[in-house]
Amino acid sequence: MQWVAALAEPPRVWGLPEEHAMSTRTHATPARRRIARTRDTLGRAALLTASVALAAGCTDSGAPGPSGTTPEPSGTTTAPTATATTGEPIWVTAYFMVDTRAGLRLAREKQDMLDDSVQTAVEMMIAGPLDTDYTTAWNPQTEVLSVSEEAGLITIDLSQDARTANIGSEGAALMIQQLVYTATEAAGDPTAAVDLLIDGAPAGDLWGAVTWDGPIARADPMDVRVLVQIDSPAENQVFTSPTVTISGEAAAFEANVPWTVHDASGAEVASGFTMTSEGQTFAPFSFDVDLPPGEYVVEISEDDPSGGAGGTPMTDTRTFWIH
Question: What is the H or E stretch that residue 250 is in?
Fold first, then answer.
């Protein structure tokens, strides 16, 4: 994302950065239309709630941001039976791609949706992220035809559009893991395997680069995930309290995670270090910042004892507001 974030959500791009030879599309598609309707419905309702809360002097952090996201993603899985009827945020996680010093990696994003089914999570993955640092290579024309779940296995049936992706072997392998991580996260079972059908038949050869001919499990997260990840705040989240909790996961050298906060002008307004519960493996972190009203971007990064010899440290950012 840019340090100065626009209030309107920018058009999302189908594909990866130019160095990965991806094509682009920005038109409306089945997955985009369904997810856009969900984001718009939840966003308008939650913005009204935020306005009422502000008028009443409420200090909780339950208001959504301008793009329709809402606060407090929690945990790494979502409850399997949640619906929007309670009025509480229903967090759905999807994984996307980001370019790093180690090549393409998976980064996750949580959005408030109408339900937390595996189908919704996969459609959200196909439609694309809110965070403009992330991208997806799945053809946005793709429709989710069905999802079935049984003990230890999730079977996903996609339309023929899923066969179209202009991507190399590195990205194709990560696309498989992107779907596997997204589906197993939504199902609440990270140990489950995922089988892919296309129009009811085994996927087989895909994108001229990989083969999906049976159930596939998650790869080692150290091999496929970005090593520093912000889960809360959500992208474009609005807070009505000056104290904001930043939390997520990192596989950090000596458990050390540097962070900075910039305002809308790009000026640094806060910085520090936080610790994960364990070093050199994915472990949670959390810290609080106290800020006056305004728009901010928080960035976390890898600690870099090599002074840049190992390449540009991996980072993650989120935009948020305090009213």
Answer: strand 243-250
Q: What is the pLDDT of residue 249?
A: 98
d(CA 33, CA 56): 35
3-state secondary structure at position 304: coil
CA torsion 134→258→112→23, rounded to 10°?
A: 0
Task: Tell me the three state secondary structure of residue 257.
Answer: strand
pLDDT in tens, 267-318: 999 999 999 999 999 999 999 999 999 999 999 999 988 777 878 999 999 9
What's the CA gap between 53 and 42, in Å, rounded? Answer: 16
Q: In terms of DSSP H, where are the helices of 188-270?
A: 221-224
Residues 6 or more apart in contact with residue 101 via CB below 8 angstroms: 310, 311, 312, 313, 314
Strand intervals (E) in the chain: 91-100, 103-112, 144-150, 153-158, 193-198, 201-202, 204-206, 210-212, 228-232, 237-239, 243-250, 256-263, 268-275, 283-290, 294-301, 315-322
Owner of token pair 């301008």? 66
Q: Which helix (H) or strand (E) holds 181?
A: helix 169-187
The pLDDT tens digits for 181-232 are 999 999 999 999 999 999 999 999 999 999 999 999 999 999 999 999 999 9
Quote the pTM value: 0.78
Please name every residue paired with 290 in a beta bridge, in sequence order, or none if there are none.
Answer: 243
Domains of the chain as residue ranges with CATH: 18-223 (no CATH), 227-322 (2.60.40.2550)
